[in-house]
Amino acid sequence: MEQISKILDKASNFFAHRKGLLPLIGILLVLINFIIQFFVPGWIAESNLFLHIGVIISIIGMMLAWAL
Length: 68
Hints:
about 70 residues; elongated
């Protein structure tokens, strides 16, 4: 439990100075998903995997930026 606390503390300090990093990564994942739909056939394009991951990361990033 102490190890998890240390990891969360380090992550909090890291993202406190880089508040827009997670939303930016999320936007990049959404753009990657858009490009993949046209050029890469398969289950990744059909499932919109990067779209869903990007939206989740963006929401988490905005919530962290607001809290920090």
